[in-house]
Design goal:
Keywords: Cell membrane, Membrane, Transmembrane, Transmembrane helix, Transport. GO terms for molecular function: cobalt ion binding; cobalt ion transmembrane transporter activity; magnesium ion binding; magnesium ion transmembrane transporter activity. InterPro entries: CorA_cytoplasmic_dom, CorA_TM1_TM2, MgTranspt_CorA/ZnTranspt_ZntB. It comes from Streptomyces xiamenensis. The structure is a single chain. This protein is an alpha+beta fold. It folds into two domains: about 1-255, Beta Polymerase, domain 2; about 260-320. It is about 60% helix and about 15% strand. It contains eight helices and seven strands, in the order E-E-H-E-H-H-E-E-E-E-H-H-H-H-H. It has helices at about 20-25, 40-50, 55-65, 120-125, 135-170, 175-210, 220-285, 295-320, and strands spanning about 1-10, 10-15, 30-40, 70-75, 80-85, 95-100, 105-110. Helix 5 (about 135-170) runs antiparallel to helix 6 (about 175-210), helix 5 (about 135-170) runs parallel beside helix 7 and helix 7 (about 220-285) runs antiparallel to helix 8 (about 295-320).
């Protein structure tokens, strides 16, 4: 599957034209082409590489999944690799890889699966038709803007999830306590993955904004500066969320330790209370004569001691917040 667009003089001329016509359109230096390939075969990717003069190493990176976010420069083009992210309800992180070849007249995007919302990128282009005459930097801006906005939204969702965990920290329900533990570990795992996606984007956008590259024109510079600002905020926010998750996990352990200490105090207090009647009845159960032996007086004395000392211990432990 392939999608395509043709711009000429800053205006959208055609959409979804046959790939075989690309050579004819490239002959006109005023044209701008976008070509999107969804999980292309090696043969098709090689044909596109020959059509646009793409480097074989860049084609190899585009065909293989698991590339790190980066911007590689070649003689005739640049190669970009990035990830769109989605935070799932349980706190898990789902990533979708996208690669892009940036030439003087074209932007070729390669998607490994349909998890990437390319329609949103197209909508961003349609919302800014006045920038279409700025060349390939216009198309690349829509792509990067979509990716970075997704990163920022994912960080915000994780921040909300951490706040919900903080509210559950002091819950007494055992089910919620286990939920805090599971969600905290899941969020920490997701933040590690998000950090690997977000942090390299700083260098990518910063490299694109360098004057010597020639991708970002003067009118596009404020828009790329806005993207760079969002990248920095997302990266800093991600780092702070890592500290927050670590704090939640440490607090949870402290709360569990305090609860265990409280339980141990209660168990110890009741054991001390139960030990009193056990000791007294054991003493009066001796088979030797003692004051009150074989007399009602002994029964009354032992019962009074049991009740009196038990009540006294209960009051003392309750006053010291042990019960």
């Amino acid at each position: 599957m392939a999608r395509s667009r043709l711009y000429r003089g800053g205006s959208l001329i055609r959409e979804d034209f046959p790939v075989q016509e690309i050579s004819d359109h490239l002959a006109d230096p005023a044209t701008l082409i976008w070509l999107d390939l969804l999980h292309p075969s090696a043969e098709k990717l090689a044909r596109v590489g020959q059509e646009f003069g793409l480097h074989e190493l860049a084609l190899e990176d585009a065909a293989k999944a698991g590339q790190r976010p980066k911007l590689d420069r070649y003689r005739a083009h640049e190669f970009f690799s990035g990830y769109a992210v989605i935070v799932e309800p349980g706190g898990g992180l789902r990533t979708t890889e996208i690669a892009a070849f940036i030439t003087g007249q074209a932007l070729i995007t390669v998607r490994q699966d349909d998890g990437f919302d390319i329609d949103d990128v197209v909508a961003r282009w349609d919302d800014s038709p006045d920038l279409a005459d700025q060349g390939v930097g216009f198309l690349l801006h829509g792509l990067l803007d979509h990716l970075v906005d997704g990163h920022f939204q994912a960080v915000q969702q994780m921040d909300d999830a951490i706040e919900e965990l903080e509210e559950l920290l002091f819950a007494e329900d055992p089910g919620r306590i286990r939920q805090v533990q599971r969600d905290a570990y899941e969020l920490r795992k997701s933040l590690v993955g998000l950090r690997r996606v977000v942090l390299p984007m700083r260098e990518v956008v910063n490299t694109l904004m360098r004057p010597g590259l020639g991708v970002v024109t003067g009118p596009l510079m404020p828009y790329y500066q806005d993207i760079y600002d969002h990248v920095l905020r997302a990266a800093e926010w991600t780092e702070s969320l890592r500290d927050m998750v670590a704090s939640v996990m440490e607090t949870n352990l402290s709360v569990q330790s305090n609860r265990m200490n409280l339980i141990m105090k209660k168990v110890t207090s009741w054991a001390a209370i139960i030990a009193v009647p056990t000791a007294i009845t054991g003493f009066y159960g001796q088979n030797v004569p003692y004051p009150g032996f074989s007399d009602h007086f002994g029964l009354i004395t032992s019962s009074t001691l049991i009740v009196g000392i038990t009540v006294l211990l209960f009051v003392l432990f309750r006053r010291n917040d042990w019960l």
